[in-house]
Amino acid sequence: MFHQILFLMSAALTLICAVAVLVTKNMMHSCIFLLGSLLGIAGLYATLGADFVAVSQIMVYVGGVVILMLFAVMLTGGKDFVSKAQNLLGLAPSMGNKWTFSIAGLVAVVFGLTSFLLINNVTKVVTIKTQNDEFVSTVNQLGHLLVKNHVLAFEISSVLLLGALVGAAIIARPKRQ
Amino acid sequence: MNQTVVTYLAQYEFFDFLLKIFGQNTSLLAFLIFFLIAAVIVGIMATVGGLGTYAERKISADIQMRMGPNRVGPYGILQFLADGVKMMTKEDIMPKDADKFLFYLAPMLCLVGVFATLAVVPFSAGFTMTDLNVGVFYLIAISSLVGVGVFLGGYASNSKWSMLGGMRGASQIISYEIPVTLSILAITLLAGGMGFGTIIGRQEGLPTNWYIFHNPFAFIGFFVYFIGAMAETNRAPFDLPEAESELVSGYHTEYTGMRFGFFALAEYIEVFVVCGVAVALFLGGFNLPFHLEIDILPIQAVQFGIFFSKTLALYYVIIWARWTFPRLRVDQLMSVCWKYLTPIAIFNLIGCAVWLVVFNGHSIADLIFGSH
Lengths: 177, 372
Description:
The complex is a heterodimer. Chain A is about 80% helix and about 0% strand. Chain A contains 9 helices and no strands. The termini of chain A are far apart. Chain B is built from 14 helices and no strands.
């Protein structure tokens, strides 16, 4: 029961913050709500027994991505900048009226319910797994799988990341005169 | 090593009595015990953080041949309580054009990031809140919330000094995370696990079993970790985010009262936590120098004392360094990190891996004295 309460709290955090990201107009605030949402996802991973993935989620997103996004938003103008410059608020009426919006909403609900039916089996499996009270560390299994069964994918993704790193360094390097 | 503090307490007799009261509702009981222990640890750590400010002023006074605080209580030791009362009763001022939401959030993020790390700090074999399998990794990850807090504190104040301090703080923290993480990775390689229980369990016994003396690479790694940790906690000589001679007070220039107090408290507790991690990873943690079969509460208290004395010794070194070395420039700060510490840390990591393969995991002392 305790796990389920924690799971529901993490899910609520994720969803509320995700909605807040969309609703907020200030981009810095959106970034912070995104941080909350990503922490909630880490909580979901943790309650489902994926400890390493949960901590990696915090490490990568909170420690790296959100700080970089905050930097990027701050250096490119921050609040109220984009909506004024591109006149998004002015565009909004031309994008639709109440009929188109309600049809779109109906379609979204139908589509959501259908996809929920489709993934219904998946959620059942997950609820069975959460009832395992005993957490087994996934670190060893992950390590074995990564360097034995999936070594090719592992190496390819590391080469890709290295390429991205070198590319970023080259782009950021000051040009020689 | 016990999995959590609850499973540790479960071996004592009074736990059966508690189980009778709560009946089948064990998860509620576990939650209540965690809540209680967490409150105790947060209280202890807040006191340690407060005494840290006192120690800082007293030690700096010693180094500069002054008296330091000596009016409140014997030797001025209650100065931090007086400071706390002063901060709580001060007016809470917010700049007119500040971002209200982020301004309130920033000190909280700093404090939450630091207090969340306390969940895995190994105070003693029994009283570790929880011995996660990914303990060290969790600690590095969750403490990056402090970086977000520092950055937001600088941004939300809407002042150029705060802004510069916040930007310096965030860039410094994410840069120095790399050498720190690499040196920790070398130790996890030696220990074969990321949990503090595993790492400390492997260093049991005499100081020759400590990982700092395991091989030359780990010895260098300790200093890389220590310098990087000093920079990550924004301590001098790396205190550029709050460089008072150029940025007034950096990212917390505009904060008053208890919000400023939260930043200060977070900094002092984080210093304690990074020192504790250094002790647990390199200096043998809470281990007694001999092996004991029995496990009773006084032993836990002794382990607690050992951990605290080692950690506070490192705490002293950090304060000592602050009042001894001049501050680095920004370009020097970055070149120290990227041109010196990071290559050395990578070299150490590879060196430790090679050592493990070549000497089959034996430490220098094992090779010299031929034990096992």
